[in-house]
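C-alpha cells for chain A. Residues wanted.
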C-alpha cells in the first residue's frame, strides 16, 4: 500500500477540479443543472476516473453514479456534480473527487468495501426539489416529485426520460437493508469559521433543519398622492414590518444556531405612484433543533398576524419546504476527528447551516461529514476556492479514516 502523500493528493484533486470546471451550459460561468447535457458530460468524465481507480461503475434511475469495489456491507462516500447558476467549482465535485482518490489509494484492495457516489440533484437549481437523487438511494424518494416542472415547463419525469432513464426503476436505486454501513461526505465549509480558526478541516456535528414559507400580505392599492398616511392599507409597509420582526426573532435565537433569511420580495401593482396592494416575500428559517424551528415558525406567523391586524391588512402563509435536522453520528465524528489529528489538524466541531446529501443519507445509515476550509468562506460564487494543500490533507484524512473503519 502506498504511503499517504497529502501534497500529491491535493495536486491531483486540483487537476480534476479544473477538468470538470469547463463543463457548463454557459461559456463564462458555471451552470451545470441536473439531467442536463452538462450533467451527462460531467458524469461521463467522472465515470472514466472511477474506472481508472479500479471501481466498477453503474448508474441508477436518478443518474447517480456508483463506483463500487469489494463485496458485502460497504462504506458509502459521495457528494454531488450539479451546481447553482454562476456557481463555484469546488462545491460538490470535491467530495466526489476525494472519494475516487481515496479508493484509488488502495490499489483495488481497500480494507472495507466502498461505494463512491456522484449525485446529481443536491442544489435544486433546475426543479423545485432538492436532494432527490440521494433520496432515491436512501429509499425515501417521493414520487410526487416527478410532476414538478422546470422553468421551461419540462417535468421531472420527462427530463429523466430524455436522460435515458425509466421512472419505474426508481425503487431499484434504494440500498437494501444492511447494505450500507455508513455514509461519509467531504465538502467545502461554505462559511468562514475554519479560516478564522486557522484550521484546514472540521467535523460536522449535524445539518440544520429548514423551513421555507411564502408570505402574502394583502392591503388595498391606492393613489400615492391622495390617500392620507393614516388611512392607507399599504401591503409593502406591512411586509417590511414583518421582515424586521423575522430578523429580530432570529437574532434572539442566534445562540441556538438559528438563521433566517428573506430572499425574495415582490410588491404589486409595482408602480411608483401606487400604494402596493399586495406584497409577497419568502422566509427561510434554519436551526439545529427541529422543535425550536417549528415553534419559531409558529411565533413568526402569530406576530405577523398581529402586525397585519394593526395595519388593517390580511396575511396568508404557504409552507413550501420542510427538512428535518440531521445530527451526524457521534462515533463517525470522533473517527474523522482522529484521522484529521493524525495529519496535524485540530478538528473544529461545527453544525452545517447548508443542506447536503448527507442529510438524506442519514435516513439510510449512520452519516458524517468533513468540512474543508474555503477562502473567505465564499461559496455559490465563481470566487469559490479551496487550496490544494487543504484538499490534500482532507483526502489524506479520509484515507486514514477508511484504513481504520470497522463494519
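Reply:
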Amino acid at each position: 500500500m502506498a504511503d499517504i502523500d497529502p501534497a500529491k493528493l491535493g495536486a491531483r484533486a486540483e487537476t480534476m477540479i479544473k477538468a470538470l470546471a469547463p463543463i457548463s451550459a454557459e461559456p463564462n460561468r458555471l451552470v451545470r443543472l441536473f439531467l442536463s447535457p452538462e450533467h451527462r458530460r460531467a458524469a461521463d468524465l467522472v465515470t472514466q476516473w472511477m474506472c481508472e481507480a479500479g471501481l466498477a461503475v453503474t448508474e441508477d434511475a436518478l443518474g447517480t453514479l456508483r463506483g463500487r469495489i469489494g463485496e458485502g456491507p460497504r462504506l458509502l462516500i459521495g457528494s454531488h456534480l450539479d451546481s447553482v447558476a454562476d456557481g463555484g467549482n469546488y462545491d460538490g465535485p470535491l467530495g466526489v473527487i476525494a472519494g475516487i482518490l481515496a479508493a484509488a489509494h488502495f490499489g483495488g484492495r481497500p480494507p472495507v468495501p466502498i461505494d463512491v457516489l456522484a449525485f446529481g440533484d443536491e442544489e435544486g437549481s433546475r426543479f423545485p426539489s432538492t436532494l432527490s437523487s440521494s433520496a432515491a438511494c436512501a429509499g425515501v424518494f417521493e414520487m410526487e416529485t416527478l410532476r414538478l416542472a422546470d422553468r421551461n415547463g419540462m417535468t421531472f419525469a420527462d427530463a429523466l426520460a430524455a436522460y435515458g432513464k425509466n421512472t419505474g426503476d426508481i425503487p431499484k436505486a434504494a440500498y437494501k437493508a444492511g447494505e450500507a454501513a455508513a455514509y461519509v461526505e467531504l465538502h467545502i465549509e461554505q462559511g468562514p469559521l475554519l479560516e478564522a480558526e486557522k484550521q484546514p478541516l472540521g467535523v460536522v456535528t449535524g445539518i440544520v433543519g429548514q423551513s421555507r414559507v411564502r408570505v402574502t400580505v394583502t392591503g388595498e392599492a391606492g393613489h400615492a398622492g391622495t390617500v392620507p398616511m393614516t388611512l392607507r392599507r399599504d401591503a409593502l409597509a406591512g411586509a417590511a414590518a414583518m421582515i424586521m420582526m423575522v430578523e429580530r426573532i432570529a437574532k434572539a435565537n442566534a445562540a441556538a444556531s438559528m438563521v433566517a433569511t428573506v430572499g425574495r420580495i415582490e410588491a404589486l401593482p409595482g408602480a411608483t405612484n401606487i400604494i402596493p396592494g399586495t406584497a409577497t416575500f419568502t422566509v427561510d428559517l434554519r436551526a439545529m433543533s427541529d422543535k425550536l424551528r417549528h415553534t419559531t415558525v409558529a411565533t413568526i406567523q402569530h406576530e405577523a398576524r398581529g402586525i397585519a391586524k394593526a395595519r388593517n391588512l390580511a396575511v396568508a402563509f404557504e409552507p413550501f419546504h420542510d427538512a428535518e435536522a440531521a445530527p451526524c453520528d457521534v462515533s463517525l465524528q470522533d473517527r474523522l476527528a482522529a484521522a484529521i489529528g493524525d495529519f496535524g489538524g485540530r478538528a473544529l466541531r461545527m453544525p452545517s447551516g447548508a443542506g447536503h446529501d448527507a442529510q438524506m443519507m442519514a435516513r439510510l445509515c449512520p452519516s458524517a461529514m468533513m468540512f474543508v476550509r474555503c477562502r473567505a468562506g465564499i461559496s455559490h460564487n465563481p470566487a469559490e476556492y479551496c487550496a490544494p494543500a487543504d484538499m490534500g490533507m482532507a483526502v489524506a484524512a479520509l484515507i486514514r479514516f477508511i484504513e481504520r473503519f470497522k463494519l
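The chain has a mean pLDDT of 96. The longest strand covers residues 209-218.
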